[in-house]
Design a protein that fits this description.
629 residues; mainly alpha; 21 helices
Length: 629
């Protein structure tokens, strides 16, 4: 008996050895660091646990946070260390889930926004430095900062599209605003313009844009010289550019040097050789040939080449005229040995033009003789009748269709597509005009039925006329051939859906295309009669397949409304009281046969109907009185 107290003392001493800590196996500290002998309650000031020994040192607001707000379970090392586990993401994942990128434990206020933008490749400089976040990061919430992208156009597309002076979009300006605008600036004003499309050099090196862009619209400035220098051209007097008919393309003679000098004028190349050939050294001043200094288009040859010598030298030459312009026509190089080669004139003589007397075309002299067809052949154009060129609006440029061969033949009408496209099978008859025009080019129809009415009327499979198909063949056919044809079945009262899509036409139209039935059973009666699970015929299901089925292949999914059509088994007292159809329909070959008395036994049923007149213990009698149990 004296040994019992010793055993009790021994057991009491062993309890701490085998006791389990509720804080998990990883917490290996003395309980006394947090608890005291008075009880398990903890006084915050008495806790001697150093949180800095963990991977999560307490700073800022975390120092005054109740332990239980983070340590929701008794096992302390289960507390997560990532911000998002404790803090609701007010930004809807628009900036990631690492709160410390922007926030500190001391406060939620963010004071490093510029640095954050630099890290993301978009420093907030210039006008961007004073913007509110939501001016760029627009969303349903003022704290959701959806990414915008670092390209200017991501924010400034409306500015780009709306700018009219100049019209950025119409002018094809770059969408990279920094090419012209200074990101450090506070407005769109700019002096950074890449004018390489029209280099501003020498006389064009000006600082005032309005000298060229006079309208205020920078997109309508024309790069052609004359658009700015027409007045300079008109007022030039030595020589008079306008009267001399000089080109208005200033760069032909001038550079962009100020004062228009030096200038180069290649008289030999552009007009007539005076620095080479027989005229080299034969003149001293421009006025020797250009007797009117106000009009350099006037020149004379006969001051030097006088008659009667010139007349004698040209005896027997057809079309000879003692006139300076005539001299130049036959002597383009100024050489006495020149002979006029019409092929070098820009109007070679071919076909019917060969052998014509010069005066037939040059009746009004040689200078300024027109080279366009209608200048000579307008009467031919106006008098044409098959086709009537004037009425149809065929171009007056005869070479569009004709060569210079006699009688205007052969002719090719390459611009046929301007009037009627020759594609497919029509292209193969492009050289057989009579196939469509039959010798008459006036009023040839350009609609399908104009040529193909006989094809339409004589078509029997399907009979287009009886079926009242449109006479516009292009509705179903291409121009390549009559088949294959594309018939828009959806335009009929039987659109093709589900299993009907892709069927060969003859699968439904085996008896022809006229009066093809649209009722399900007309095509699917065999499917109906041969169905055994359930037996549709035996069950006397309706033959209108659409009652239960869609047009999906395989007849599934099917929708059989047993409650609405027959008897409520998915609702009411029978809901959940059966497993298979055979529970009630004991004859799988005839679903019109059903039983109630399998479940409703006679003893109980008789007892339930002791006062019911005419009661019969029979399934059809049950349904007669209980159509909606």
């Amino acid at each position: 008996m004296y040994r019992l107290p010793s055993i009790i003392v021994l057991l009491m001493g062993m309890i701490p050895i085998f006791a389990q800590s509720p804080h998990g196996e990883e917490l290996k500290i003395d309980c006394a660091q947090c608890h005291n002998p008075a009880g398990w309650n903890i006084e915050a000031n008495d806790i001697k646990f150093d949180h800095s020994t963990t991977e999560f040192e307490l700073e800022g607001a975390h120092l005054i946070t109740d332990c239980k707000e983070c340590h929701t379970s008794m096992i302390f090392d289960e507390a997560p260390s990532d911000c998002i586990s404790c803090h609701l993401d007010m930004h809807s994942m628009s900036v990631g889930n690492d709160c410390v990128r922007c926030h500190t434990p001391q406060t939620w206020l963010v004071d490093n926004i510029p640095e954050l933008h630099e890290e993301n490749g978009f420093p907030l400089i210039g006008a961007h430095s004073s913007l509110s976040c939501i001016e760029c990061h627009t969303s349903e919430s003022i704290v959701r900062f959806d990414r915008v992208g670092n390209d200017c156009i991501n924010c400034h597309r409306e500015d780009y599209l709306a700018t009219q002076s100049p019209d950025h979009m119409g002018s094809g300006f770059s969408t990279d605003c920094t090419e012209c605008h200074d990101p450090l600036g506070g407005s769109w004003d700019t002096a950074i313009i890449d004018h390489d499309f029209f280099p501003l050099t020498l006389g064009h090196d000006i600082q005032d844009c309005s000298e060229c862009h006079t309208t205020g619209n920078f997109s309508d400035a024309n790069p052609d010289c004359v658009s700015c220098h027409q007045i300079d051209y008109d007022q030039s007097s030595n020589p008079n550019h306008q009267s001399a008919d000089f080109t208005t393309d200033c760069v032909s003679c001038h550079t962009t040097n100020p004062g228009w000098t030096p200038a180069t004028f290649d008289h030999d190349e552009l007009f007539f050789p005076i620095y080479s050939g027989e005229h080299a050294g034969e003149w001293d001043d421009c006025i020797d040939c250009h007797t009117d200094p106000s009009n350099f288009s006037i020149f004379t040859c006969i001051t030097c080449h006088m008659n009667p010598e010139t007349d004698e030298e040209h005896q027997g030459i057809s079309g000879y005229i003692y006139e300076s312009n005539a001299c130049l026509i036959c002597h383009p190089t100024g050489s006495a040995g020149d002979s006029f080669d019409h092929n070098n004139s820009g109007f070679p003589l071919t076909g019917s033009h060969i052998g014509l007397d010069c005066l037939e075309c040059h009746s009004n002299g040689y200078p300024g003789t027109p080279t366009d067809c209608e200048a000579c052949h307008t009467p031919d154009y106006n008098g044409s009748s098959n086709p009537n060129h004037l009425a149809i609006g065929i171009p007056t440029d005869c070479v569009s269709c004709h060569t210079t061969e006699p009688d205007w033949m052969p002719a090719s009408f390459d611009i046929h597509n301007n009037y009627y496209q020759l594609n497919g099978a029509h292209a193969t008859i492009a050289n057989d005009c009579a196939a469509c025009h039959n010798g008459d080019y006036n009023n040839t129809p350009n609609n399908c039925v104009g040529c193909h009415l006989d094809d339409y009327n004589n078509t029997s499979d399907p009979n287009h006329l009886a079926a009242q198909f449109p006479t516009d063949c292009a509705t179903c056919h291409t121009e390549s051939a009559w088949s294959p044809a594309n018939y828009n079945h959806d335009a009929t009262n039987f659109p093709l859906t589900g299993g009907h899509i892709g069927l060969d036409c003859l699968e439904c139209h085996s008896g022809g295309y006229t009066n093809t039935p649209t009722e399900c059973q007309a095509c699917h009666l065999d499917d109906y009669n041969n169905t055994n699970n359930p037996n549709h015929a035996g069950a006397q299901f309706p033959t209108d397949c659409a009652t239960c089925h869609t047009t999906n292949p395989g007849w599934t999914p099917a929708n059989f409304d047993h409650d609405g059509q027959y008897f409520p088994i998915y609702s009411g007292a029978h809901d959940g009281e059966w497993d298979q159809c055979i529970d009630c329909h004991i004859n799988s070959n005839d679903y019109t046969i059903f039983t109630c008395i399998t479940c409703h036994t006679q003893a109980q049923t008789d007892d339930d109907h002791t006062d019911v007149t005419g009661y019969i213990y029979e399934s059809n009698a049950c349904f007669a009185c209980h159509p909606d149990p």
